[in-house]
């Protein structure tokens, strides 16, 4: 999900049109951006909502995105619900959510059926093994890209927290809930204290 | 787990997991792996790595790896249950929070919490990479391919899809 980490750089705001999109239009728009979004939907979401349909200004988009980014769960899915609801209320939220998820879920289900039947084929096994290697490489690249600001600052506390979570989950294989119930309050407390120090 | 229906196990597992998925789907991969492979034995290590590869290669949000896990556990109904359980609760939470914070920019808490969560989600994603690498990078050439893709994707803006397809092609040719 973080291939689509941040919205593109600010460009001059296009005025948002005041026309409210229909529910079907919302469904179709989110279905299209979802199906276009190989390896990350956010870029397409931004293009469709801000540039193409002008349902929101770039600033409104960033604000809503920031909100969805700090909440748990798949960001882009959260985003669809919040965007849809901001434009057309609960029904709009559901239309966007369904548009985003229904078509790719159907595709994924078909792929699951195919995998169940043909997953043992030698050719497919080999190809998937190659794709897996590349996919892990992509993930490592995302991690590096996200780490750069911490290294540049350099944010020692952030780096220590990052390494601690990495060790607890990746090496020791501890349950996520247990790790985060300790790490989240700790990280928020440290960030709060450090920011107060800077302000003082 | 013996008396529990697999559908309910999927719903409770992913519903709870989504609420702890700070930093999105990639951050939840280690927990998915732990539950699906180590705790419930729903899939093998190799099947999990395959599912991750398929989810990366397909259109749509990457979180849909849960659709594949759900299908492996309980067929089409399982696929649907896992997808909704992973996506709906946090979407509703996001909706409620967005109603509460009509003007998120006026409060400094969202910014502070987000800043505090960033290192944690990077750590989680790094853990995802390690766990997946342990099941995919079994040979020196596979390790080299992963490293090459990592470098290429870091220094260039090449579309990730091409790198995935290149990996698939190398695998198809029997090189990896």
UniProtKB/TrEMBL annotation, chain A:
Q: Which spans are transmembrane here?
A: 23-45, 90-115, 127-144, 156-172, 178-194
InterPro entries per the UniProt record, alphabetical? CHR_Transporter, Chromate_transpt
Record-linked Pfam families: Chromate_transp
Q: What is its main location?
A: membrane
Q: Where in the cell is it found?
A: Cell membrane
List keywords of the entry alphabetically.
Cell membrane, Membrane, Transmembrane, Transmembrane helix
Annotated GO molecular function terms are:
chromate transmembrane transporter activity
One term under GO cellular component: plasma membrane
> What's its membrane topology?
Multi-pass membrane protein
Q: Which family does it belong to?
A: Belongs to the chromate ion transporter (CHR) (TC 2.A.51) family.
Name listed for the protein in its UniProt record: Chromate transporter
Q: What organism is this sequence from? A: Bradyrhizobium centrolobii
From TrEMBL, chain B:
InterPro entries documented for this protein: CHR_Transporter, Chromate_transpt
Which keywords appear in this protein's UniProt record, sorted alphabetically? Cell membrane, Membrane, Transmembrane, Transmembrane helix
Q: How does it sit in the membrane?
A: Multi-pass membrane protein
As for subcellular location, the record says:
Cell membrane
Which GO MF terms are attached to this record? chromate transmembrane transporter activity
Main site of residence? membrane
One Pfam assignment: Chromate_transp
Q: Name one GO cellular component term.
A: plasma membrane
Q: Where are the transmembrane segments?
A: 7-29, 68-97, 109-133, 139-155
Task: Tell me its family.
Answer: Belongs to the chromate ion transporter (CHR) (TC 2.A.51) family.
Q: What is this protein called?
A: Chromate transporter
**Which lineage is the organism of this entry classified under, starting from the top rank?**
Bacteria, Pseudomonadati, Pseudomonadota, Alphaproteobacteria, Hyphomicrobiales
């Amino acid at each position: 999900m973080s291939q689509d980490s941040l919205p593109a750089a600010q460009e001059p705001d296009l005025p948002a049109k005041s026309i409210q999109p229909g529910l079907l239009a919302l469904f179709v728009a989110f279905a299209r951006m979802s199906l276009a979004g190989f390896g990350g939907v956010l870029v397409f979401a931004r293009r469709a909502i801000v540039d193409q349909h002008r349902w929101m200004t770039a600033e409104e988009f960033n604000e809503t995105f920031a909100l969805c980014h700090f909440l748990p769960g798949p960001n882009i899915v959260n985003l669809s619900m919040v965007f849809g609801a901001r434009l057309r209320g609960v029904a709009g939220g559901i239309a966007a959510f369904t548009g985003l998820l229904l078509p790719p879920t159907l595709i994924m289900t078909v792929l699951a059926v195919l995998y169940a039947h043909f997953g043992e084929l030698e050719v497919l096994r080999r190809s998937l093994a190659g794709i897996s290697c590349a996919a892990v490489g992509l993930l490592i690249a995302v991690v590096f890209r996200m780490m750069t600001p911490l290294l540049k600052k350099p944010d020692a506390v952030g780096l220590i927290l990052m390494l601690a979570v990495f060790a607890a989950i990746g090496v020791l294989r501890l349950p996520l809930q247990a790790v985060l119930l300790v790490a989240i309050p700790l990280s928020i407390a440290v960030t709060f204290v450090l920011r107060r120090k800077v302000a003082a | 787990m013996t008396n529990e229906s697999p559908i309910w196990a999927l719903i409770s597992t992913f519903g709870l997991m989504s609420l702890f998925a700070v930093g999105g789907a990639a951050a939840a991969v280690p927990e998915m792996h732990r539950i699906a492979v180590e705790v419930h034995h729903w899939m093998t290590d190799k099947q999990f790595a395959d599912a991750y590869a398929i989810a990366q290669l397909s259109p749509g949000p990457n979180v849909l790896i849960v659709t594949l896990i759900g299908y492996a556990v309980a067929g089409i109904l399982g696929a649907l249950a896992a997808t909704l359980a992973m996506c709906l609760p946090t979407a509703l939470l996001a909706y409620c929070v967005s109603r509460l914070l009509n003007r998120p920019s006026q409060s400094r808490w969202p910014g502070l919490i987000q800043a505090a969560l960033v290192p944690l989600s990077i750590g989680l994603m790094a853990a995802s990479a390690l766990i997946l690498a342990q099941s995919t990078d079994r040979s020196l050439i596979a390790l080299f391919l992963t490293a090459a893709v990592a470098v290429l994707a870091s220094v260039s803006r090449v579309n990730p899809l091409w790198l995935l397809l290149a990996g698939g092609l190398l695998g198809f040719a029997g090189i990896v």
